[in-house]
Amino acid sequence: MQEGREMATATKTEGNRNRLGLEKSPYLLQHASNPVDWYPWGVEAFTKAQAENKPIFLSVGYSTCHWCHVMERESFENAEIGQLMNDSFVCVKVDREERPDVDRMYMTFVQATSGHGGWPMSVFLTPDLKPIVGGTYFPPDDRYFGQPGFKTILNRVASMWSSKKDKLNQQGSVILDVLMQGTVVKSTSARLPDDETVTKCVAMLTSSYDSSLGGFNTEPKFPQPVKLNFLFRIYAREASTAKGKDALDMCLHTLSMMSKGGIHDHIGQGFHRYSTDKLWHVPHFEKMLYDQSQLAVSYSDAYQISRLDEFATVVRDILLYVTRDLSHKSGGFFSAEDADSLPNSDGAVKKKEGAFCVWTDEEVRGPLATPVDGTAGTTYADVFVKHYNVHAEGNVSPHQDPHEELKGKNVLLVRGSVEDTAAAFQLDAGQAERILQQCRETLLKERRKRPPPHLDDKMITSWNGATLASVSRVLFACLSCMSVSCVVVMESSLREKRYE
């Protein structure tokens, strides 16, 4: 874990803190200084809502969620909006990682009524917790595409509650009954899916597969390792058939394109949450432990089957990131790293998404001015800039940067191969790879001078279990398939972090 990491603390004095200041969740503590009179999920909030006959505004998120931060800055830190929330609602904050049961219940409602879900999740409830209306991120005012802003929605719901309370209660009861039926886990003796079901699932994945860029559907693109694991098993079962070979091709191509994309942190290792575009280029920059553990298994499977070194390299990359940045020296793994951070150490007070990870052309060229031996004026920077698509004006489209946080910046992205880059400078591939490796190491040292993003230091049992299982599986794969040197690197990395 890096020194000087920002942990979960509120920024104001105790006298200005709301009830969330007494909580342990990093996410709740982030909101302890809001002008909103937040309550944690519990009897105190519910009793107040029932006694005052007020609806509840429920906000669910997690500490490293970019759009949670945006909604906080725009709305929850706004005194006028905070007063409106306090006057008309009992406001409740939930960390989805502390209360996955609450998150699941109301996310089912939001997805069913709006067609999509995500965080922050914003749901209005009756005093007895029946959902009225919900959504995800709301801008503070009516600024986007004619959609109502948060202030407008607050006023509308308050007005509806005042004039149509009985109807909303009745409607909420019906919805809650449906939700309960959909979220209760029932004991079943049903058989495993039959061949027809499996074939249908493969056909659905095939129809949504992006044969050019990998992944499924269009933007945003998530890694979705569960789908890849399923397709790997189709290949294992039917390796000699066209269906099996197609399943493997979808997996290998997707994993290769992801590892080349900006969703992959080429300097600091590991994978960001998801890509905002179909190219895997511009991610939302938070990093989650559970993504790393699942992807380590997928890339390990890819290596076991294909024996391609590119996949083994990514496995080592993921484990290096987890052991270095998400591990406690006494054991256990932290939950996540934030998407947002301060852009510099020179008194900046406003965090920006991706500030820790992106680069200007000048920031790249400065530390990489070393000349390449045997060339006429080529520098390490020239090789790196070519390989990772760095442009003087930045490589992020304004369409992908609505808040202009990435203007003039570059999200590193590989379009070709090391061989292509080597050929462009008349180098051999081995020399080009050594230069790129040295460049990455140099830029990692430069990046560590920047203010690091917030670390969510919760240790979630299920996520830790999944990570330990993935590490065990990866090391088993190494022993059976990879070189001895690969195993030594991984084992020594884990041992070093565990006992340092």
Number of contiguous helices: 18
Query: Can you summarize the main beta sheet?
Result: 5 strands, mixed
* Strand count: 12
Structural class: alpha+beta
Strand order of the largest sheet: 1-3-2-4-5
Helix fraction bin: 40-55%
Quick check: average pLDDT? 88
Beginning-to-end CA distance, first to last residue: 11 Å
- Helix-strand pattern, N to C? HEHEHHEHEEHHHHHEEEHHEEEHHHHEHH
Binned strand content: 5-15%
Q: From the alpha-carbon coordinates, what is the Rg to the nearest angstrom? A: 25 Å
The residue ranges in which pLDDT falls below 50 over 5 or more consecutive positions are 7-14, 481-486, 496-500
Q: Which descriptor suits the 3D outline?
A: globular
What features would you describe in this structure?
This protein is an alpha+beta fold and 500 residues long. It is built from 18 helices and 12 strands. The protein has helices at residues 26-30, 43-52, 66-76, 79-88, 100-114, 150-163, 165-183, 195-208, 225-237, 242-260, 289-306, 309-325, 361-365, 380-387, 418-424, 429-447, 461-481, 484-499; strands spanning 38-40, 56-61, 90-95, 121-125, 131-135, 274-275, 283-284, 287-288, 336-337, 340-341, 352-353, 455-456. The protein has a 5-stranded mixed beta sheet, with helices on both faces. It has a 3-stranded antiparallel beta sheet with strand order 8-9-12. Helix 4 (79-88) runs parallel beside helix 6, helix 11 (289-306) runs antiparallel to helix 12 (309-325) and helix 11 packs parallel to helix 17. Mean pLDDT is 88; it is low at 7-14, 481-486 and 496-500.
